[in-house]
Amino acid sequence: MAARLEVSRTQAATLIASGNVSVNGRREKASYRPARGETIVVTRPPNTAREILPESIEVAVVYEDEYLLVVDKPAGMVVHPAPGNWSGTLVNALMGRGNELSEGSGADRAGIVHRLDKETSGLLLVAKAERAHRLLSAAIAARRITRRYALMIWGHLESDSLTVDKPIARDPRDRKRMAIVNTGRQAKTDLLRLARFASGDLLRAHLHSGRTHQIRVHLASVGHPVIGDDVYGGGGGRRIVGLSPRRHFLHAAWLQFNHPVTGVAMDIRSPLPDDLKHSLRIIGENASVALADDPLAALRFYE
User: Fold this and answer.
1) Fold for domain 51-142?
2) DSSP-assigned beta bridge partners for residue 202
């Protein structure tokens, strides 16, 4: 059930215990092993609406008009409310600004067109108008929105460029993780090395798809996890490279798209935040490019 419904084992067990699951019309315990040909029916109970409250939380808005805005999200901020994080999220912060937000993804994800992981910093598109939300979602699906990330990996790629094209799905052994799974959804990431340092490479990643944890899973699959990534094997040596706890070296630095309503070409950039610049100086052993005011520009990230 957990695999088919893409829920946790705990959620599946709760559905069974609450009588929402039948096997050939009868109730069974979660430990029951169905025989071939038996029919399992799951009745999902209606979601209990939870009020999402506005909060006074400072958030950096780098572009805004009547249709959309672009936020520079800090590391450590969850994008939308969910169990375990009902407050302090980006959605709470945007509501606290008094923004009108689209509800195309539901009230708990008001305005959210795409997401960033909690410990990933950088640029995030938010829709204010319903029309903008529909058009932006369609543009992402059609790969007309360019999203590029700056990241540091442990070790070195065999060449200056690499494309990882591997399907991603929930890890069948750990539902909190993603993994390379043959039956997963197609996922493709282009990687370009911008600089090579003693302990790792600074890369630019270009997403062709937007799967959960895509960059992190793809790099872990080729033996070079993102530095600071505790989930996928890159968390060791954090202190050596000057990263704070629960922070990985991954930053959404560049967005390019045509405005969904006006058609104007948008080019929005976010320099490395101070904590990643500090880490880059340590990893780069104070090389001149690492000491630049904007290391990404110095490394020709935006070309």
Assistant:
1) Pseudouridine synthase (3.30.2350)
2) 152, 195
174 catalytic, yes or no? no
DSSP H/E element including 214: helix 214-221
Radius of gyration of the chain measured on its C-alpha atoms: 21
DSSP structural state of residue 226: B
Q: Which residue has the tokens 């043959």?
A: 182
- Which one of the listed residues 72, 117, 201, 229 is annotated catalytic? 117
Ordered per-residue pLDDT tens for the chain, 303 residues: 877 776 667 778 888 988 999 999 999 998 899 999 999 999 987 665 578 899 999 999 999 999 999 999 999 999 998 877 889 999 999 999 988 899 866 777 889 999 999 999 999 999 999 999 999 999 998 999 999 999 999 999 999 999 999 999 999 888 889 999 999 999 999 999 999 999 999 999 999 998 999 999 999 999 999 999 999 999 999 999 999 999 999 999 999 999 999 999 999 999 999 999 999 999 999 889 889 999 999 999 999
Q: Is 25 exposed, middle or buried (0-12, 13-18, 19+ CB in 10 A)?
A: exposed
Please answer whether residues 178 and 169 qualify as being in contact, where contact means their C-beta atoms are separated by less than 8 angstroms. yes
Kindly list the domain boundaries of the chain, sorted by start residue. 2-42, 51-142, 143-303
Task: Please choose, from the candidates 172, 76, 191, 63, the residue with its C-alpha nearest in 3D space to the C-alpha of residue 128.
Answer: 63
Q: Is domain 143-303 given the CATH code 3.20.20.140 in the classification?
A: no
- Nearest CA-CA partner of 99 in 139, 125, 129, 144: 129
Sign of the torsion angle spanned by Cα atoms 177, 157, 147, 271: positive
Reference 155, options 283, 247, 276, 297; nearest CA is: 283
Whether residue 124 contacts residue 73, with contact meaning beta carbons closer than 8 Å, is answered with yes
Pull the structure tokens for residue 185. 């959804």
